[in-house]
Amino acid sequence: MESENPFFCFPLVYGDEAVVCKAVMQDIGYDIEFDGRWMASIAHTEDWTWIQSAGVILPAAIIEEIGLRIESEYK
User: Fold this and answer.
1) Distance between the two ends of the chain, CA-based, in angstroms?
2) Which candidate in 13, 24, 56, 63 could, as Cys together with 7 as Cys, close a disulfide (CB 3.0–4.6 Å)?
């Protein structure tokens, strides 16, 4: 079933592999997929940093990179 929520995709290196990262807007935060597989949900904190709220534990650098890509998409 295709998502009706806005999304965008971008290339990302994860675990020494190139993947297609899809960020799907949700009511609170974004669902993150790598090559079509749901990996995590991320959201802003009150001080505007990105945190992971669910899913496979991703390295902080990956969460930060995804957050920066999300922010740059909407600037």
Assistant:
1) 29
2) 24
What b/e readout covers 24-50, taking b as 16+ CB neighbours within 10 angstroms?
bbeeebbbbbbeeeebbbbeeeeeeeb
Threshold 0.85, pTM exceeds: yes
Pair 42, 56: CB distance under 8 Å = no
On whether the CB atoms of residues 54 and 41 are closer than 8 A, the answer is yes
7-73 domain in CATH 1.20.1330?
no
Going by pLDDT thresholds of 50, 70 and 90, the confidence category of residue 30 is: very high
